[in-house]
Amino acid sequence: MAANFFTSKPGSKSSAKHAVDPALQPWVEKYRPKTIDDVSAQEHTVAVLRKTLTSTNLPHMLFYGPPGTGKTSTILALARQLFGPDNFKNRVLELNASDERGISIVREKIKDFARQTPRAQTVASDGKTYPCPPYKIIILDEADSMTQDAQGALRRIMETYARITRFCLVCNYVTRIIEPLASRCSKFRFTPLDSQSAASRIAHIAEQEKVDINKPVIDALINVSNGDLRRAITYLQSASRLSSASIPPTPILARDIQEIAGVVPDKVVNEFARALGIDIEDDDMDVDGITNGKTNFTAIQKKVKAIVREGYSATQILSQLHDLVVLHPLLNSKQKSACALVFAEADKALCDGSDEELWILEIALRVNKAVIS
């Protein structure tokens, strides 16, 4: 990945190998923040790191938070601003989950890079001046997948070579980082993107790529991505490719986003919920199979078979039905609690590999019993 952020001399083997046509580049890479000021919705972290650019005194860091919130993008943008494109390759080592990071890698590759004295700053080819402090940065992406032994071996390396090497650990689950390692780092928590920041970024990318989308489509992208901007951008690019596959291009609709994301359409979930006796108001809803407050096994079974026949995921149905029940304004706490117990039991069974159709039917009958009792 580091190769994307430095330039090579024209005609060299490196430039031929790493040259990427922007039209073929994934949008998540194409629109990755170039500076820390471009990072969305992480104001506290950006404010602290902005000061490190002026002082160039960077501690060991630990970035943690949900996927797609900008952790890797932030440290890469900071490194580019510190070292510039010409020094980036020599000063930054990035290892992610695709690399083996057992204790042997820590003792060999990481230690060898950490002990090297940084080269003197080269004159930037783009005419800009970079701070280029006298240390290197090692980025360990998804550090929570490192073995306990590897994390233990890393402690001494971080201390021994702190003068010339700084570490940035990036992970989703901070609890999987051993405490002696976490205590050596300054912690930065990345939160899921709020709807406004995500919508602004998505609209900007759509404008740059000349993709015609409206507010319902943006809302659908935000809802299915759950604060993961990387996922939202990927879905947008997939929808754009799908739209441009026909001539003239077909308009992108919210249901297209749900289809790409593997989410069960709202209409299907609402019809299923109504068949279970949950009051749903939707003028566009098919009224067949409504139980009207009574248990109707045949009608419920018909709905379940229709869902299974369409190939929808039982886990996805469970997740969306859970959200609908928990947020429903007309169900009382006792009803929601009874449904929640059913969802928990079903989730455990599905994780253990139980039959999906039987458990969707089980969920349906027990939720129906809970809401009409």
From TrEMBL:
Pfam families: AAA (PF00004), AAA_lid_RFC1 (PF25361), Rep_fac_C (PF08542). GO terms for cellular component: DNA replication factor C complex; Elg1 RFC-like complex; nucleus. It is found in: Nucleus. Keywords: ATP-binding, DNA replication, DNA-binding, Nucleotide-binding, Nucleus. SUPFAM superfamilies: P-loop containing nucleoside triphosphate hydrolases (SSF52540), post-AAA+ oligomerization domain-like (SSF48019). Its main location: nucleus. InterPro entries: AAA+_ATPase, ATPase_AAA_core, DNA_pol3_clamp-load_cplx_C, DNA_Rep/Repair_Clamp_Loader, P-loop_NTPase, Rep_factorC_C, RFC_lid. One of its GO terms (biological process) is DNA replication checkpoint signaling. One of its GO terms (molecular function) is ATP binding. Residues 57-194 form the AAA+ ATPase domain. Belongs to the activator 1 small subunits family. This is Replication factor C subunit 2. It comes from Leucocoprinus birnbaumii.
